[in-house]
Hemoglobin (Vibrio hangzhouensis), 119 residues
Amino acid sequence: MADTLYDRLGGTETITQISADIVDLHLSNPLIAPRFAQSDTTRLKKVVSEFFITGTGGPNLYTGKDMRSVHQGMNISAIEFVAVLDDALAAMNKNGIAQREQEEVLFILYSMRADIILV
């Protein structure tokens, strides 16, 4: 049986680190940092990690809202969405994730586009 994307990414420990790096990059990215200015960073890192772990085939930890509900009314632009993808890619590069797995993660994130942009 093939390993899940979760396994190939390195499991909970690595995904938690990638998630923390993504949030840190968001907080310093001038295109999207204002969106996170009032966020509880510790909680945000936890939620992003749980979402990432669950979404890649790991344990079902995510108890948050669906993507459309979370982003409803935020009027997120396509440019902001791409900035988030760029930060995810940078975090995966920082953590030594192979190209195939990066592509799979980006595909998953991109597939959520309609539930995030201008909803």
In short: Residues 5-115 form a domain with the Globin-like fold (CATH 1.10.490.10). DSSP finds seven helices and no strands in the chain. The helical segments are 5-9, 11-28, 33-36, 41-55, 67-71, 78-94, 99-111.
